[in-house]
Specification:
By secondary structure, the protein is α/β, with parallel strands linked by helices. The protein has ten helices and six strands, in the order βαβαβαβαβαβααααα. It has two domains: 134 residues, Response regulator (Rossmann fold, 3-Layer(aba) Sandwich); 55 residues, Winged helix-like DNA-binding domain superfamily/Winged helix DNA-binding domain (Arc Repressor Mutant, subunit A).
């Protein structure tokens, strides 16, 4: 997870085609306007939800998808997993205001090439877009250090995802809908997570996992 120096500014005539996905319209619009100032970057599509991001990616075949981690319908990691299968030439960069170690590890397992906080400047983001487009990986150094100090999680990617969906006390039916899983499968994942963490119930499991940086 060592950060890779940014790729040099390209002078090629063909710009890097970028998809922006964020459910906060003001942030997404401002970012699109700032990236438009970069002569080698072209924002070809925008989206506000996970399913919309997938639809826009299929329609416009971007080189780099810049995805918010948390979006309605499907989060950035789940969108990345789908893009990796359908559009392997599209590199994914996730931006987030919730940079927990568990999120980072889940993103890297899904093939995400970049992971940065939303506090990054537009100019720096443009450099990182070029980096991941060149086939390199970039992880924010502070987030990488937090992930290393958190240690290895005993939870699988799916267990961590389902446990996080349960964090706000959502019923199994709602968690199943959000995770696109059967209710029985959700119960199995929750039971396994509770057992692995030695917790009394799923609420305690969520607290323990968050304290240790695993979700």
């Amino acid at each position: 997870m060592t950060p890779v120096p940014s790729a040099p500014h390209s002078s090629a005539q063909v710009p890097v085609r970028v998809l922006l996905a964020d459910d906060e319209h003001l942030i997404r619009g401002a970012l699109a306007a700032l990236l438009a100032l970069e002569e080698d970057l072209l924002v070809v599509a925008q989206a506000a939800t996970g399913p919309e991001a997938l639809a826009m990616a299929r329609a416009h075949a971007p080189d780099v998808a810049v995805l918010d981690l948390q979006m309605p319908g499907a989060d950035g990691v789940r969108v990345s997993t789908s893009l990796r299968a359908e559009l392997p030439g599209c590199q994914v960069l996730i931006v987030t205001s919730h940079g927990r170690p568990g999120h980072l590890k889940r993103a890297l397992a899904a093939g995400v090439r970049g992971f940065v906080p939303k506090t990054v400047s537009a100019q720096r983001l443009a450099e990182i877009i070029r980096t991941v487009h060149a086939g390199n990986r970039y992880v924010d150094p502070e987030l990488a250090a937090d992930a290393i100090s958190a240690g290895d999680s005993p939870l699988t990617v799916r267990e961590a995802e389902v446990l996080e969906f349960a964090a706000d006390g959502a019923p199994v039916a709602e968690i199943a809908e959000r995770a696109a899983l059967a209710e029985g499968t959700v119960r199995n994942y929750l039971s396994s997570a509770v057992s692995k963490l030695g917790a009394e119930n799923r609420h305690t499991a969520v607290r323990l996992a968050r304290e240790r940086g695993w979700v």
